[in-house]
Amino acid sequence: MHVPDGFLDAPTSLATGAVAVAGVAIALRGARRELDDRTAPIAGLVATFVFAGQMVNFPVAGGTSGHLLGGALAAVLAGPFTAVLCLSVVLLVQALLMADGGITALGTNVTLLALVAVVVGWLGFRAAQTVLPKRLASVPPAAAFGALVSVPAAAVAFTGLYALGGTAPIPLDTLLTAMLGWHTLIGIGETVITGFVVGGVVAVRPDLVYGARRVLATRELEIRTPQDPAGATS
Amino acid sequence: MGAGHGHRLHYHGHSRLHRAPAHLKLVALVGFMLVVVATPRELYPVFGGYALLLVAVIASTGVPFGYIGKRMVVEVPFVLFAVLMPFVATGPRTEVLGLSLSEPGLLAAWGLLAKATIGVAASLTLAATTEPLDLLRGLQRLRVPDLIVQIMAFMVRYLDVVTAEMGRMLTGMRSRGCDPRSPRHWPLLARSVGALFIRSYERGERVHLAMLSRGYDGTFRL
């Protein structure tokens, strides 16, 4: 669910726009390091994948449904900088071509769903990785933990922005409770699906998972030569 | 793929707005929406003026109103939020049809509905009258970083390919008796999404190699 036009006042929208521009500028430099000249095609396809993944709906409560936000998922699969770019472009396309999320709220949406969700998701993933054993098998649970913290973090950030530039006098504690409660439920769906998706990719193509590179690098190549069978002539 | 090659929200036409340069339309949209958002919500007639202006613009493009109207459903979640607002907001309360509602909440709900609706209609007008490729050229002219434009170009190009791939996977799952929405089948659904990621990433690698073999040097000529 994206913030529409008029939800936050104009100064807050402009300020979050400036934050978003700065964040995307940093991500542009970082993504070059993650992907070098493959950045454009691969980030483009990963962005498309995130968009398609966001069409996955799951029931939340009372007949409503939430969808995958994909911040933590993209960060673990493609690297945090690439993920920020992908999510930002997804939001840009949704705002310009599908009118999903206001054009003046684009900065707000990028700040919340691309910057906060990806950065918190990635930090949560890295924190879990330092605690869990350094094995390939601990990458999916670490990614799930990253997803678990990223969704409520975006909800809290939204409440903070609303406190600064909200347009209705809603008591902040009510809003915070509602946002946190709701997004914790969404976060659970996000957690389970992120964990399983990363698990599925790690099982087949661990080399594609950015978050698993550190673990893969510590594995040593082991060359096993078959024993000389008895009686073989050389 | 026998379908048309515009994006799903584009409505082919030859009006003045269809032919206007995309970067001007983008600047006009952002400027218009900033003015709308900054307008105090108590100025009711001004919003009427904005709405009339928008209706006049849409009429001049020849895009049917029903076409825009049908696509305005993306706004529905926020309509629900706006409806809730008078119930949860604080401040002096007033009686409407036997319900006790917050006055500032009602005002805020009006403001949100008016601004969000104008925003959705204005954005849809831009989407309906601009080809994606022109939009990309417009962003390029507005000095949006080249890498962002390139990523967006790939996204626009492969959007239908990847979502159709996802759709085929979901159809396949459903035909085997799996309900992708049910939490019981999340592991299966996630396996498919993981496969979709691998396919998308590998497609990206293939596209990159194909571009290199055609002389890609990091710049794009749209």
Notable characteristics:
heterodimer, A: 234 residues, mainly alpha, two-stranded antiparallel sheet, 8 helices, 3% strand, B: 222 residues, 69% helix, 4% strand
CATH class of chain A: Mainly Alpha
Strand order of the largest sheet of chain A: 1-2
Q: Tell me the structural class of chain A.
A: mainly alpha
Q: Strand count, sense and closure of the main sheet of chain A?
A: 2 strands, antiparallel
Order of helices and strands of chain B: HHHHHEEHHHH
Question: Residue-averaged pLDDT of chain A, rounded?
Answer: 84
Q: Using DSSP, what is the number of strands of chain A?
A: 2
Multimeric organization: heterodimer
Give a description of the structure.
- The complex is a heterodimer of chains A (234) and B (222).
- Chain A is mainly alpha-helical.
- Chain A has 8 helices and 2 strands.
- Chain A has helices at 10-35, 39-53, 71-78, 80-97, 106-131, 139-165, 172-204, 213-218; strands at residues 57-59, 65-67.
- A two-stranded antiparallel sheet of chain A has the order 1-2.
- In chain A, helix 3 (71-78) crosses helix 5.
- Chain A starts with 9 loop residues before the first helix and ends in a 16-residue tail after the last helix.
- Chain B has 222 residues and is mainly alpha-helical.
- In chain B, 69% of the residues lie in helices and 4% in strands.
- Chain B contains 9 helices and 2 strands; from the N terminus they run H-H-H-H-H-E-E-H-H-H-H.
- Chain B has helices at 16-19, 22-38, 44-61, 65-71, 76-88, 103-129, 132-141, 146-175, 186-213; strands spanning 93-96, 99-102.
- In chain B, strands 1-2 form a two-stranded antiparallel sheet.
- Residues 1-6 of chain B have low confidence and may be disordered.
- Chain B: One of its GO terms (biological process) is cobalt ion transport.
- Chain B: It is a multi-pass membrane protein.
- Chain B: This is Cobalt ECF transporter T component CbiQ.
